[in-house]
Sequence to fold (424 residues):
Amino acid sequence: MTWIRAMSGAAMLWAALGGVAAAATDSTVLLLEVEGPITPVVADYIADGIEEAAELSVPVVVRLDTPGGLDTSMREIVQAFLNSPVPVVVYVAPEGARAASAGTFITMAAHVAAMAPATAIGAATPVDLQGGEITDKVINDAAAFAVSVAERRGRDVGFAEDAVREGTSIPATEAVERGVVDLVADDLDSLLEAIDGREVSVRGEPTTLRTASAVVERFEVGAFRRVLARIADPNIAFLLLSFGTLAIVYEAANPGLGFAGIAGVIALLLGFFALSVLPVTAVGVALLILAAALFIGEIFVPGVGVLAAGGTISLLLAGLFLFEDAPSVRAPILWPTALVLGAASVVAGRMAWRARRAPSTTGVETLIGREVMVEPRDATTGDTFVDGTWWKVRAESGALAEGPAEVVGIDGLTLIVRGKRSET
Fold:
């Protein structure tokens, strides 16, 4: 019986050890990949990823490569990291990547910050995309935010402030030496091995990471979000709205083209779709609508181009004030687009004016001046066959004679004719 108990105990121990090994092997991390500017679409993607990881009770790894982005979106991401119910690891990768501007704040806000070799972090000074000067108020606010994030995660406060005020940027090795990030890792597997067993504070509770040999599960970006990410850019949104308006203007100037109107409606819908996720201002939207109304008005009231000039000015102001936090439309896009739309609306107005003054080429009016053969019914009325259709006719004055006559007017479905004089 003793040997049976011994064998049973060994089996139970083997099963327990096997279960522990399986649990270690089956550990999972959720990988989010962010490449490109930080936009509201990226902020939503990260928020959804953290929510998914919380349901699975697994850590999040964000592989980051960004030149920066919108301040509001960056703050949403930082807030999501600071309040995350699961550990968040930011990994600036691959080699040659950067965590610049908004990426600096995002990296420092993670529970664990890591960088691949030959990467950089910093240059977080706010910029005005119109080339204007940023006020001290904006810089002070950004610097205070960077310092508060660094203090919360125990990172180098001096670098956090210098990155904002002086635009300081440093490579990965120096970032580790200065305590800006925690480590340098060659690849994702090396990162997961290196942070295994590290203890972090998640909502004030100590949590130990178990990431060695973890299964990496990618949190994919849906097709809808991929499309939105492409157009959720202030410059692209502005171009879509502007040229959508231009297409509508030309459709109004030349009704019947069809393609211009369809293309314009599609462009406008995509533009407003982009605006739905970008931080827009009411003034900017109002100026955009005013510009469109003035451009279309130029078609119906063509003159010396006053309405077109007003539309151009409104469009320029809309590009300057349409978006919050200074992510305005870039000057090389804004000025040419506004001038092209202004000039195009003047041309479209002239085209519409000429079309309205040109002789009609369709409809019953084209019968005026035509020669028809009259078959009298009585002294003043008769019939004629024109272009495959029988018409009633009556004399302009006097009696109606049989033979050729000229159409001089139309009264409903009756042609008014004048008899042709016989040549001698």
Q: What stands out?
A: The chain has 14 helices and 16 strands. The chain has a mean pLDDT of 84.
